[in-house]
Design brief:
423 residues, alpha+beta, 4-stranded antiparallel sheet, 57% helix, K/Na_HCN_channel
């Protein structure tokens, strides 16, 4: 439309120059609240007549500002746990710059919230009075926002610049500085309170009168929160043993595997809560069927078996990770489980000759599932290995539900006892 025929709300905003960006814009949301273009026009006039610099809840600048803050907040909620868990105090200039920028932005956000108009829950009229806005903000989100905006990025940047400038620092003073930096980084977890910005944004959108907007952002918030919880759990899986300098009883895995394990465990808990225990078992069974069915099919004793039996066996699989040069088991050790190689290479060291096994192979002996015995070889990981194991006790419990297969397995173990290598 031409300006002469533009809606009244748009004409008012256009005639106010730069101040128009702080006035309510004419869109579906404002129309759903105020009911008509004339009502939006009156709201613009009401704000202009107040003579106070306040950002209207339906103004275009507030929409762009909120989207910017949501994006920065989401990046912070991803980056802060990664910085603490993985960067080990060497985050680099770019990352420190982003931290300083984020801290500055959140400090500005605290100040701007005293000038941000509010749509109260029990009223469709925007609150534009500064005193009322201040009282509402101080009683609600002010304290979490101040804590989350604490400029830890500035502190870390100054401390690191100081540590780099003191090249002649003694060893004890340098180690003390490292401990201080680690303490500050742990304290920086308070910045995760910035999640409140996401909570407010999604609460505000969920109160909108547009149903398709509510549905879209509810789904988006669900996926974002699921992702963040999985991501945080993955970082914790690495961070906790790192604080203890990776003790000897810490399970062996690389950085990526620790993180992936944490993500998978958090996701599995959320699936169980969302779907219930029965459906959760079905989900896990489908995952294991896709991942491990080929591993079972490579073993002669499991070929051409009933599908229900195989699916029940798959549910008994346990995932294990070994690093390069780890001994999976020693010769003459008790043989109580069978191993399936999902990814990696192992070396089977027998008295006669060594043998290398790789993806899709199995070891540990088929008959050990039926009759426990001593290992006849030592198996060592040549690379980082991701294995699935099936214990004899778990397998015996499965056979109790399948008596016909149990009798067949016992015959199979008896006939092939001399032919099958029992490691």
């Amino acid at each position: 439309m031409e300006n002469s025929q533009a809606p009244v709300g748009r004409r008012t905003a256009s005639t106010c120059g730069w101040r128009g960006v702080f006035l309510p814009q004419l869109n579906r949301q404002s129309l759903s609240v105020y009911g008509s273009e004339i009502a939006v026009e009156k709201e613009c006039i009401r704000q202009l007549q107040s003579g106070v610099w306040v950002i209207h809840p339906f103004s275009p600048i507030r929409s762009y500002y909120i989207m910017c803050m949501v994006a920065i907040t989401f990046l912070n909620l991803i980056g802060i746990p990664m910085e603490i868990a993985f960067l080990d105090g060497y985050s680099g200039v770019g990352w420190e710059g982003f931290n300083v920028f984020s801290d500055t932005l959140f400090l500005m956000d605290v100040a701007l919230n005293f000038r941000m108009g509010i749509i109260s829950e029990d009223s469709e009229v925007a609150i534009l009075d500064i005193k009322k806005i201040s009282v509402i903000y101080l009683k609600s989100w002010f304290i979490p926002d101040v804590i989350a905006a604490f400029p830890i990025g500035y502190i870390l940047l100054i401390a690191e610049l100081q540590s780099h400038s003191d090249t002649s620092t003694s060893g004890s003073k340098a180690s003390r500085m490292v401990r201080i930096l680690m303490f500050v980084r742990i304290i920086s977890l308070v910045r995760l309170l910035r999640v409140s910005r996401l909570v407010r944004f999604f609460n505000e959108v969920s109160n909108a009168n547009l149903e398709y907007v509510q549905l879209f952002f509810r789904i988006l918030s669900l996926f974002m929160m699921m992702f963040l919880l999985c991501h945080w759990n993955g970082c914790i899986q690495y961070f906790v043993p790192m604080l203890e300098e990776f003790p000897s009883d810490c399970w062996n895995a690389t950085v990526g595997e620790k993180y992936s394990f944490g993500v998978f465990r958090a996701l599995s808990h959320m699936i169980q809560i969302s779907y219930g225990s029965t459906d959760f078992v079905c989900v896990i069974q489908e995952i294991l069927t896709v991942m491990c069915s080929s591993l079972l099919n490579n073993v002669p004793m499991f070929q051409n078996r009933d599908v229900n039996f195989l699916n029940t066996v798959l549910l008994q699989f346990q995932h294990e990770v070994f690093q390069e040069d780890d001994v999976i088991f020693h010769q003459n050790a008790p043989g109580d489980r069978m191993f399936f190689i999902e990814h990696g290479q192992v070396l089977v060291e027998t008295d006669s000759f060594p043998q290398e096994l790789a993806d899709g192979d199995y070891f540990g002996g088929q008959t050990c599932l039926m009759t426990k015995g001593k290992r006849l070889a030592t198996v060592r990981a040549l690379t980082t290995c991701q294995l699935f194991s099936l214990s004899s006790d778990r397998f015996q419990r499965v056979l109790q539900s399948f008596p016909d297969i149990r009798r067949d397995m016992e015959k199979y173990a008896q006939q092939d006892k001399e032919d099958v290598i029992h490691l």
